[in-house]
Amino acid sequence: MMETATTDLTAMGKDAKAASRRLGVLSTEEKNAALHAIADALEAQAEAVLAQNALDLAGAEAKGLSPALLDRLRLTPARIAALAADTRRVADLPDPVGTVIDSRVLENGIRLSRRRTPIGVLGVIYEARPNVTIDIATLCLKTGNAVILRGGSETLRSNLALVGVIQTALAQAGLPQAAVQYIDNPDRALVTHLLRLDAYVDMIVPRGGAGLHRLCKEQSTIPVITGGIGICHVFVDESADLDRAVDIVENAKVQRPSVCNALDTLLVHRAVAEAFLPQVATRLAQHGVELRATDDALALLHAHGFDTLTTPAGPDDFDQEWLALILGVRLVDGLDEAIDHIQQHSTEHSDSILTRNNAHAERFVDSVNSAAVYVNASTRFTDGGQFGLGAEVAVSTQKLHARGPMGLEELTTYKWIGIGDGHVRE
């Protein structure tokens, strides 16, 4: 049984490598035509996709998955329409493949340049978000990369339906269906096999929890880009516009609490805590947000009548990516203490300062080494679509190759091109 699975993955790898060579030389017009065909097919086959998603949702509910995970899993007509629109937006974006990064003429007369090229074949492992299937496939196609996808078992029907839509559109566009493949066996052992397909796969991108990231880093013989785990902070400075700060915290926490750029920890300058905490607690209580607060913040909240939805913060609560309507709250004495807290607890995803002090804003930006750092803005903007990238393969929190939302350019590498005229090295 194990040998069959390995052989199947090897065949998928070979097919993906062959497809990547075809994709790598396509014109921008050919790639865009395929993307528009996928968008059209998504709209035409929306009912069939939604039917399969309904079966996944029923199974997930029966297993007792949390509301946050169910929200990640759920597709709706509006979400499918948004996926089709995002696919068309990717088609409209400039094609990075073939662009020259820089060029020069050497002293010996050789013209030297760096030109963007596709990475080749990606292996992407992800969990309960079927929209990721479309995001990754479209970005890979635009950049001439093939991809092997492996989603969570709870989304198997949804993902197979979406990949079916993609492959049908690819065939209609005259492109190899192996450009986008899906591992349809939920056996977890296959993840390890994928991580060792270094003869065919050029990069692994895990989108999931810490356990998946650790597995990939420990087991992969292929370069791994990790990211997507966000313990995100907002620091309310003593000079912050408190009315706007309430709006920003509300947006960051409750607009979509199940995603990686949602707010997890609120840090409040002690000088404005008396005025700010009751305001923000009142707003968040309307959404059922539970506050896990340090003793001093909890005492202040209780003094203002907030006895429900407020509990003492536990020893590990500031190291949690909640993915739910829970928010850690801590009072700090100033900017330095806020920065120290973030440096100790952040996963370097998205962190924000709310302030009207430009010097404080600059020091926060310089000191907080996260993939995305904001001044007077919600952490919810860390997203490929919001950044004008069309979509994203992942949000990288590491420092090599790519950081933040990985769009088109991040799915390319480059080659050196040297043009001579009979040059030989002396």
Descriptive report:
The protein has 426 residues and is α/β, with parallel strands linked by helices. It is 43% helix and 19% strand. It has 14 helices and 16 strands. It has helices spanning 2-23, 28-44, 46-62, 67-73, 77-92, 131-142, 156-172, 189-195, 210-219, 242-254, 270-285, 295-303, 335-345, 358-367, and strands at 100-105, 111-118, 121-126, 146-150, 180-182, 203-207, 232-236, 263-269, 290-293, 310-312, 326-332, 350-354, 372-375, 395-396, 404-405, 412-419. The strands form 4 sheets. It has a 7-stranded parallel β-sheet with strand order 10-9-11-8-7-12-13, sandwiched between helices. The radius of gyration is 24 Å and the shape is globular. The relative contact order is 0.13. Residues 1-7 have low confidence and may be disordered.
Q: What's the structural blueprint in terms of helices and strands?
A:
Layout: H1 2-23, H2 28-44, H3 46-62, H4 67-73, H5 77-92, E1 100-105, E2 111-118, E3 121-126, H6 131-142, E4 146-150, H7 156-172, E5 180-182, H8 189-195, E6 203-207, H9 210-219, E7 232-236, H10 242-254, E8 263-269, H11 270-285, E9 290-293, H12 295-303, E10 310-312, E11 326-332, H13 335-345, E12 350-354, H14 358-367, E13 372-375, E14 395-396, E15 404-405, E16 412-419
Parallel strand pairs: 3-4, 3-6, 4-5, 7-8, 7-12, 8-11, 9-10, 9-11, 12-13
Antiparallel strand pairs: 1-2, 2-16, 14-15
